[in-house]
Amino acid sequence: MKEYRTINKIAGPLVFVEKTEPVAYQELVNVVLFDGTIKRGQVLDTSDELVVVQIFETTTGIGRDSGIRFTGETIKMPVGKDMLGRILSGGGKPIDGGPEIVPEKRLDITGAAINPYARGMPADFIQTGISTIDGTNTLVRGQKLPIFSGAGLPHNNVALQIARQAKVPGSTESFAVVFAAMGITKEEANYFMQDFERTGALERAVVFLNLADDPAVERIITPRLALTTAEYLAFELGMHVLVILTDMTNYCEALRQIGAAREEVPGRRGYPGYMYTDLACIYERAGMIKGQKGSVTQIPILTMPGDDITHPIPDLTGYITEGQIVVNRELHRKGIYPPINVLPSLSRLMNLGIGKGHTREDHKKVSDQMYAGYAEGNDLRGLVAIVGKDALSERDRLLLEFADLFENRFVRQGYDEDRTIEDTLNLGWELLSSLPVEQLTRIDRDLINKYHPKLKAGAKKE
């Protein structure tokens, strides 16, 4: 292996090397310091004159006299069945005090693109136990459904609750969770580890933790390591895998930091122009393959800077993914958990995974009716602030009360409360029974007769 001592410049996490033989993009690099210490890096850019290497650790101690060795390999993730129940660093090293992972395979972390023709159609309902997701923004196997949140909101608690409770009702197939946290504090990392161990969710999970003081470069590879692990569990072991990535905003900040070090021409708000492509390379690794048993479902979580849903990160994410779950600051101020606002939330694949044979025949109609009632009641709150409650009609008063009921009974639930889809739909009917039957215009009459609590009670008496 040749060693080059032609370092031209060091900028942030980047080392610029001159006069090399042709090297490959993403090739692994060993940097040999004067005392024999070896630091690892990866080729970020290559040309006839210059090779740019990003270092996975700090560049402290690297000088012009340091040796550069190109290994001819790319980053590979060691994977095996015994990964379940393990907690790993953002670079894939065990940090739970357990032994090193004995790999059955070593897979390239960039993954293999799924041929669109080979993709299976998502159709199986995943129950998260959270009514605002299961009832009105249903998650389906193979879907990518992000959670849009804001700084200081309890999105991490929501993520842990989903990781703990997610299941496919009535299915005996193996289900696993891959949880990757990027740019988190040590306190948050300890909280995640304690929660996984306390609830027993760790037994079926693989956890990757990248801390805020870890190098930005490591943050770039963490989601790729997690997704490579998920693809192995799904497509080689036949498991159904839910991947939770938090926080994608920290990932994008790392992209911007490295782009600035490379002196790239910035795009919107200083983020790289290729950020859309980069995010797509991560999100599009969710899905199902025809003829394969397993599936990869993704829930990326991101904090919107300034609660701005038009910010480049949520904006580009929304273009790539199949909907979004929006965590709302106003609901959080009211003390409602989980503070998920169903009005701007959307699951584009919801209709494929609900209804007879999936959840229940009344699911779609109940969801539409609750959404319509809550939207109208929420709008009336603005009117009440101007004209007062006394100016409202009887119908409007009922809708206003329904909006409060919806937030306090349907949206609000306990951190450890795991509602079945039947619990969620029955609760929806209970709330809708506070409105006159003639106002339930989005539900067929035969469904009203079958599920409406008051009509069911009347039929039983007769």
Automatic annotation (TrEMBL):
One of its GO terms (molecular function) is proton-transporting ATP synthase activity, rotational mechanism. Keywords: ATP synthesis, Cell membrane, Hydrogen ion transport, Ion transport, Membrane, Transport. Residues 129-347 form the ATPase F1/V1/A1 complex alpha/beta subunit nucleotide-binding domain. Pfam families: ATP-synt_ab (PF00006), ATP-synt_ab_N (PF02874), ATP-synt_VA_C (PF22919). The keyword Ion transport applies. Transmembrane segments: none annotated. GO terms for biological process: proton motive force-driven plasma membrane ATP synthesis. The keyword Membrane applies. It comes from the Archaea. One of its GO terms (cellular component) is proton-transporting two-sector ATPase complex, catalytic domain. It is a peripheral membrane protein. It is found in: Cell membrane. Residues 8-72 form the ATPase F1/V1/A1 complex alpha/beta subunit N-terminal domain. Residues 353-451 form the ATP synthase A/B type C-terminal domain. Has multiple subunits with at least A(3), B(3), C, D, E, F, H, I and proteolipid K(x). Component of the A-type ATP synthase that produces ATP from ADP in the presence of a proton gradient across the membrane. The B chain is a regulatory subunit. Belongs to the ATPase alpha/beta chains family. This is A-type ATP synthase subunit B. It comes from Methanoregula formicica (strain DSM 22288 / NBRC 105244 / SMSP).
